[in-house]
Design goal:
- 33% of the residues lie in helices and 23% in strands.
- It is α+β, with helices and mostly antiparallel strands.
- The protein folds into 3 domains: 198 residues, FAD/NAD(P)-binding domain (3-Layer(bba) Sandwich); 111 residues, no CATH class; 93 residues, Polyamine Oxidase, Chain A, domain 2.
- The strands form 6 sheets. Strands 10-2-1-14-20 form a 5-stranded parallel sheet, with helices on one face. It has a 5-stranded antiparallel sheet with strand order 16-17-18-15-19.
- Helix 1 runs parallel beside helix 12 and helix 2 packs across helix 12.
- The model has no long low-confidence stretch (mean pLDDT 96).
- The structure holds flavin-adenine dinucleotide.
- The site of flavin-adenine dinucleotide has 35 residues, from helix 1, strand 2, strand 15, strand 19 and helix 12.
């Protein structure tokens, strides 16, 4: 067995998950990260001297790989810093409240007693879920989520208030354009898995503290190296050894764990993985807008998360409740939409007006609009995604876009990182 020496490019959740799994197996690992802050798209930023997240993230009870990784890297007495809540869904006039996990059939009860749906809506949603659960759903590769929903007679109310918001939250794309088979995977795992799989998991600390800093501590304790502020580019030595420009070391394997739009720039000679790049270069991207409004400390929505069914404010998060950031309200707008036609200033004003109408918060003390233009790849029907093993021996991909079952999510990133480590260990 050769002694492996692995480089991981990118310290987002995929690269860090790979780093944790590799160093835990005793593999010599060096991580390179362009930024000085760990966590990639799920990282902290500082606004007005306050630590917040680059984008508000919600985890699901179906994120089993993520939760188990978070658990494995924390110190014995450290908290997981996750506030796990039973599925509670409030979007415009629709309210679904599920009882706690110990009550059998809690999700069915939640649906039956939902407010804002007619009996016909409830019947049609439950029938659809039953067909999904029974594995009897007919999904064509070219189907959009909307095609699927219409084929199974989902009502306009269900589409507007339930399925499209779920599609936007999970796939970050409107149901007219979202991939039906990936959507079905999400529904199957998050709504039809074990009772606690539909729980909502709210981080209670910033995302870098939740995972990335702990992962880095874990890696360094196992003699892994993390090079921050270091943009890595792959080159080949005289005998085709894998190297990182500017470093004299040769690597047995390199895990490329950047977001898809950065993959090409990681290679000095793109011909090394041309077929893979041809697939990635077909990708298009969807934005996520996060708008923070800071009010006086005494205001609250009285709920962690609420959906407003407005194109200018999909979901409202009360960071006072989740993070003890009193008076700080975060709004998330997923995917493309009319909000993109507004300037940041107009969007800040528009969304503050919506909050004021609903909660009478008045005018915020300050507001900030964060527009992540390439937050996720567009999870459209028939999209061909690259395999993690590339045509170049020793080069393995990781990242949310490589985990085929899921859309771009933390869970997809984590699973892809763990899989990259398995691929390497199995190749030894
Ligand atoms: C605003 C927003 C909200 C979101 N909300 C949710 C949510 O609620 N729930 C959820 O599950 N998911 C959510 N996501 C998606 C989730 O953040 C991503 O799926 C996940 O973070 C992707 O992780 P990754 O490691 O694959 O990629 P990234 O996080 O993009 O990490 C790639 C890393 O590679 C680094 N890099 C790039 N090039 C180089 C180079 N040449 N050398 C060294 N380093 C390099 C980058 O700096 C980056 O740190 C959201 C995303 C955004 C943007």
């Amino acid at each position: 067995m050769t002694s492996p020496n692995v480089a991981v490019i990118g310290a987002g959740w995929a690269g860090l998950a790979a780093g944790v799994a590799l160093t835990d197996s005793g593999v010599k690992t060096t991580l390179f990260e362009t930024s000085r802050i760990l966590g990639g798209r799920a990282r902290l930023i500082t606004l007005n001297e306050q630590i917040v997240d680059n984008g508000i993230h919600l985890l699901s009870g179906a994120y089993t790989a993520t939760v188990s990784l978070l658990d494995s890297i924390k110190m014995p007495l450290e908290s997981l810093n996750i506030d796990r809540q039973p599925f509670r869904y409030s979007y415009g006039p629709l309210h679904i409240n599920t009882p706690p996990n110990y009550i059998p059939g809690k999700r069915l009860l939640g649906f039956l007693f939902a407010r804002g749906l007619s009996l016909a809506d409830k019947f049609s949603a439950l029938k659809f879920l039953q067909i999904v659960k029974g594995g009897k759903l007919v999904v064509e590769p070219s189907d959009s989520v909307l095609d699927l929903l219409l084929r199974y007679q989902q009502t306009a109310t269900l589409i507007e208030l339930l399925w499209n918001p779920i599609c936007l939250s999970a796939l970050n794309i409107q149901c007219e354009r979202g991939c039906a088979s990936v959507f079905t995977n999400v529904i199957t795992d998050a709504l039809l898995g074990p009772e606690d799989s539909s729980d909502l998991l709210f981080p209670t600390v910033d995302l870098t503290s939740l995972f990335a800093s702990r992962a880095a501590r874990f890696i360094e304790k196992r003699e892994g190296t993390i090079c921050l502020g270091r943009r890595a580019r792959i080159t080949q030595g005289k005998n085709n050894e894998l190297m990182i420009e500017g470093s004299m070391k040769c690597f047995s394997h390199i895990v490329v764990a950047t977001s898809p739009h950065n993959v090409q720039s990681v290679f000095k000679e793109s011909s090394m993985i041309q077929a893979t790049l041809n697939l990635i270069n077909q990708f298009t991207y969807e934005p996520v807008y996060t708008i923070y409004h800071q009010y006086t400390k005494n205001i609250s929505t009285d709920t962690r998360m609420i959906g407003l069914n407005s194109p200018y404010a999909h979901w409202v998060f009360d960071r006072g409740i989740t993070h003890q950031d009193l008076g700080l309200i975060g709004i998330v707008i997923s995917g493309s939409g009319p909000h993109q036609d507004l300037t940041s200033e107009q969007l800040a004003i528009r969304s503050a007006d919506i909050l004021n109408e609903k909660f009478s918060f008045g005018t915020p003390l300050w507001s900030k609009v964060l527009a992540e233009k390439r937050a996720t790849f567009s999870c459209t029907p028939g999209l061909k995604r690259p395999a993690q093993i590339t045509e170049k021996k020793g080069i393995i991909l990781a990242g949310d876009y490589t985990y085929q079952r899921y859309p771009a999510t933390l869970e997809a990133a984590v699973r892809s990182g763990i899989k990259a480590s398995k691929i390497i260990l199995e190749s030894l």
